[in-house]
Design a protein that fits this description.
Layout lengths: L2 H23 L4 H21 L6 H4 L9 H5 L2 H9 L18 H35 L2 H32 L9
């Protein structure tokens, strides 16, 4: 299946899932609250394979407090890493692994892919925050709480993981110039 076909199929599946969950549980239901986080990530993930999302270069700069990784470790990023490396989740980004022979080009490619994954999750995270705010305004407390927890797990944790991994990459390969978006 080609990338365009995959993107169209992912968008159709995301749309159908949103519609079904809305009809089945309503906008304030648990099913919709989870799907409203998962479906956009599915669609954005497929689209980003065709046209990667790029944030401003300044976004990707690691701040001093991020560079040693301790903050992210305290936030549980190692557990997120274990989950992301196993099972079906690993299939979404099969090339987010250190190359067997870490050449300069291989390291730069890996960093670029990490930035792409981070960007997709940031965009969806922010979009879901808007949906969650809407749920709060409407008084749909269950949906607001469930979508917040799901958003932190499905988008917040992956953003932290990519930033943590890029910090590790910079420490392991300091001689390689950081990729410019």
């Amino acid at each position: 299946m080609g990338r365009w076909t995959q993107a169209v199929a992912a968008i159709a599946l995301a749309g159908a899932s949103l519609w079904w969950s809305w009809r089945w549980s309503g906008p304030d239901g648990v099913a919709f609250a989870v799907v409203v986080v998962w479906a956009p990530m599915l669609a954005v993930g497929a689209i980003s394979q065709l046209a990667p999302i790029r944030l401003p270069a300044r976004w990707y700069e690691l701040r001093p407090f991020e560079r040693d990784g301790r903050l992210y470790e305290r936030l549980g990023v190692r557990a997120a890493k274990r989950v992301a490396r196993r099972g079906p989740i690993a299939a979404f980004n099969p090339d987010l692994h250190l190359p067997r022979e870490p050449t300069g080009d291989g390291v730069r490619h890996l960093e670029r892919r990490m930035r792409d994954a981070e960007s997709s999750h940031v965009v969806v995270f922010l979009a879901v925050v808007l949906v969650t705010v809407h749920a709060v305004v409407k008084g749909w407390w269950t949906a607001a709480i469930v979508s917040t927890v799901a958003n932190l797990a499905m988008n917040g944790a992956p953003v932290a993981l990519q930033r943590y991994n890029r910090a590790l990459l910079r420490r392991r390969f300091p001689e390689e110039p950081a990729e410019r978006p």
